[in-house]
């Protein structure tokens, strides 16, 4: 394991912690994104923990020009194992690009947005006898759709940026091999 990778990971980790600078167990360091630490196996069970974990993962991916697979994101790594995984992904940007393509194929979740709109519009149509309630439901769809569009914009920008960084790493790696 590279000490430089580990040091950079700890710096990113500290920026995303609820209580930066406090001691943490390296065996379950991700649990220490929260204060108090998340219980074993409970890191992904609350919005509070996901609000810390997801930006941490995003920053690590951007900083190292890598992309974690779904399995990597769900794993309970020790700090050293996580650093080893990051170093391994750094040495193989093609694997990161393949993982990124798989994530993009899974998509953003527009199917859920369309389904929710259909359900709400059907409910509104069923409530024609109560026009104020039906109108309220229809009006509610607008802000929800705008919020999803905003989240999609952030998602698309992030993946474009990450894809560009990984592609640059692939080009650099090819240039190094050809010399």
Short summary:
With 179 residues, the protein is mainly α.
Essential attributes:
single chain, 179 residues, mainly alpha, 2 domains
Oligomer: single chain
Overall, the morphology is flat
Tell me the major beta sheet.
none
Strand content: under 5%
| Mean of pLDDT | 89
Radius of gyration: 21 Å
User: What number of structural domains do the residues give?
Assistant: 2
The number of helices is 7
Low-confidence stretches: none
Helix content: over 70%
- What is the number of strand segments? 0
Q: How does the helix and strand content classify structurally?
A: mainly alpha
Gap from first CA to last CA: 26 Å
Secondary-structure element order, as H and E? Answer: HHHHHHH
What does this entry look like structurally?
With 179 residues, the chain is mainly α. The protein contains seven helices and no strands. It has two domains: 1-105; 107-179. It is 72% helix and 0% strand. Helix 1 (3-16) runs antiparallel to helix 2 (47-64), helix 5 (93-106) packs antiparallel against helix 7 (131-178) and helix 6 packs antiparallel against helix 7 (131-178). The radius of gyration is 21 Å and the shape is flat.
